[in-house]
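Design a sequence for this backbone.
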């Protein structure tokens, strides 16, 4: 594996990491601070995570979220144009187009999400996208195998 591989993180990963310091999503944030992987996300995803953390978790969790983002220092990709987003109309729900587009435009090797329902579908598999979509558990199993 030459150079750092980019890992695109969905809002669900940030929310889960904030809610559990010892869970898989939290470990992924640590992995993305290392020498083999780096985090990529979008401003819109960070805002979505922040909104959900405020709504569902404590003020301490929100503070942890801010600290994690600062320590992670992810690459933030630019918003995707409507023209580019429309390319994904046939393979993903309208509300999730920006997430998929962000992962692809960020040139990530991996896209990590807890949202299997919307991102691990037959339509996405058939689209043969140049990215590997995984859950946190699947990604950590991959990292473990890579280390061994």
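Sequence:
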């Amino acid at each position: 594996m030459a150079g750092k591989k980019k890992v695109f993180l969905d809002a669900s990963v940030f929310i889960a990491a904030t809610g559990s310091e010892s869970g898989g999503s939290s470990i992924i944030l640590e992995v993305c601070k290392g020498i083999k992987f780096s985090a990529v996300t979008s401003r819109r995803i960070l805002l979505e995570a922040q909104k959900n953390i405020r709504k569902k978790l404590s003020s301490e969790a929100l503070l942890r979220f801010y600290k994690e983002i600062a320590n992670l220092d992810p690459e933030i990709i630019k918003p995707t144009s409507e023209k580019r987003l429309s390319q994904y109309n046939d393979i993903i729900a309208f509300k999730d187009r920006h997430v998929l587009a962000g992962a692809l435009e960020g040139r990530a090797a991996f896209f990590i999400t807890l949202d299997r329902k919307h991102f691990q579908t037959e339509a996405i598999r058939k689209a043969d996208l140049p990215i590997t979509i995984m859950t946190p558990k699947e990604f950590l199993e991959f990292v473990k195998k890579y280390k061994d």
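The chain has a mean pLDDT of 90.
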